[in-house]
Design goal:
heterodimer, A: 152 residues, alpha+beta, Lipocalin, eight-stranded antiparallel beta barrel, 24% helix, globular, B: mainly beta, Immunoglobulin-like, 2 domains, nine-stranded antiparallel sheet, five-stranded antiparallel sheet, 3 helices
């Protein structure tokens, strides 16, 4: 019984490695462009609180967050029409790891406190979505915001 | 002719003869519950399961911490005392179809929910089993008395107790239904408890989501007009509101009223509103809401429904678990 289990385990690991190799290549491609792709205006497309979809229950439609890189290379963001989020006022942003980002760091202009939230940048229907996972209130209440870029 | 015997006789049935509780559950004090049970033997040795354990569980409010505060004894004239211990969460049993193996606590919840109660997140099953396996549980007729001593929590709570007994090898999802029995009792309210009443017995008139939240969370109130037939103040009123007073940690109070949206079909009369308290109460960056006190009302707020229809407001405190 143990031997069968071990064989399955090894087979599983090998399959995972194969999948990883192909997607790792994709991951590298997308990461190189990710910082540039983040710049622009984003709006909220979907909000999930714990496992409940709140999108239709509260008006998130006027929220806008804009990610910029100024000529000096400083990465700033501005927020219009705040909703519950890690920050409310304008400030600066960065990624935890420029190559394989998992966290997004935001700091309001007049604050010394940095807020770190989970971040992913999946391609959905051919376009990049931002996905943030964070807790603006109790740590037992999780929010996933899916953001789409404003069309120009 | 083939005589088909019911499985009950073949493999040994469980019968709950009686469950006796004290008349009152007093906050902070120990209570003693007595169960009289019959464990019938298997009719033939080949159906008797060796190394069997008996599993006994009861429903308690989570704030009782009953896992830590319960002792259980099993006493029968013939087999004398069997030591009963809390089943570790690491011990697994088959769960509901397709849900794999789960802890006994989770399996009881899948099988029986929270008995006759509402507010399933506020109640839990406390699960004990015989410390050792026994062969004779299946071979002789046993009429044990099971004594449960547990400590009532300090909070104000009402719930309908439930007691359950089964065999470990059958679990809760076998087809042999006679190997498990459950009994539900009527509503008991803790006497001398503190805080707002956590009422698990009656359909909640209203719910708050999330259960624990801060003023920077998105917050949803739902209101069921039909839950309490005696609360008729808003009958026939088409525009229903929640009329609130927000109290900050500095003891400022801010009033706000929100229109409720009817949420579902013609068969019930439910309303809801989702809002962001910091926005609704127009808090400045240095203000924090401690609680809201609110009624469900008409627009003028001269017709209102409050807590237990007693004319006092519902209260929600903003704090985390």
């Amino acid at each position: 019984m143990h031997q069968i289990r071990l064989s399955l385990c090894v087979l599983g690991l090998m399959s995972f490695a194969l999948i990883c190799t192909t997607s790792c290549v994709q991951q590298e491609d997308l990461v190189a462009e990710s910082t540039k792709s983040l710049e622009g205006n984003w709006h909220i497309a979907k909000v999930v609180q714990n496992s409940n979809d709140l999108t239709g229950l509260f008006d998130f439609s006027n929220f806008k967050i804009k990610f910029l890189k100024d000529p000096a290379g400083v990465q700033t963001y501005t927020i219009e029409n705040p909703v519950p989020f890690a920050v409310n006022a304008n400030g600066v942003w960065s990624l935890d790891d420029p190559t394989y980002p998992h966290n997004f760091i935001l700091r309001e202009n007049n604050s010394t406190v940095s807020k770190t939230i989970k971040f992913s940048f999946p391609i959905v229907n051919g376009k990049r979505n931002i996905r943030f996972l964070f807790n603006p209130g109790c740590t037992s209440v999780n929010y996933i915001y899916t953001l789409e870029q404003d069309s120009i | 002719m083939i005589l088909v015997l019911p499985l009950c006789i073949l493999a040994g049935c469980i019968t709950i003869k009686s469950v006796t509780q004290p008349d009152t559950f007093v906050a902070g004090e120990n209570i003693t519950i007595t169960m009289n049970v019959n464990l019938a033997p298997a009719s033939t040795p080949e159906y008797a399961r060796n190394g069997e354990r008996v599993v006994i569980a009861f429903l308690a409010p989570k704030n009782w911490n009953a896992d830590q505060n319960t002792t259980m004894t099993f006493n029968d004239a013939t087999v004398k005392n069997i030591s009963m211990v809390l089943i570790p969460d690491s011990v697994l049993t088959p769960g509901d179809a397709g849900l794999g193996e789960v802890s006994w606590k989770a399996a009881f919840k899948q099988r029986y929910g929270v008995g006759d109660n509402y507010l399933p997140d506020s109640l839990e099953w406390i699960c004990f089993w015989s410390e050792k396996p026994y062969d004779y549980l299946q071979t002789i007729n046993i009429n044990p008395t099971i004594t449960i001593i547990t400590k009532v929590g300090l909070q104000n709570v009402s719930f309908k107790p439930a007691y359950s007994i089964c065999y470990k090898s059958e679990g809760l999802f076998s087809t042999f239904v006679e190997s498990r029995k459950t009994i539900n009792k009527t509503c008991m309210t803790v006497v001398g408890g503190i805080g707002e009443l956590l009422d698990c017995c009656n359909i909640p008139m209203q719910t708050t989501v999330p259960g624990y939240a801060l003023d920077n969370d998105i917050f949803t109130l739902t209101f069921d007009k039909k839950a309490n037939p005696e609360a008729t103040q808003l009958n026939g009123i088409l525009e229903n509101y929640v009329t609130m007073k927000g109290y900050t940690t500095d003891n400022d109070s801010i009033e706000s009223q929100l229109l409720l949206t009817k949420t579902d079909d013609n068969f019930s009369d439910k309303y809801a509103v989702t809002f962001w308290p910091r926005q609704t109460f127009q808090l400045t960056p240095d203000q924090t809401l401690e609680r809201i006190e609110y009624f469900y009302t008409n627009k003028a707020a001269d017709k209102k429904i409050g807590f237990a229809n007693l004319g006092i407001p519902f209260i929600y405190h903003f704090n985390c678990q």
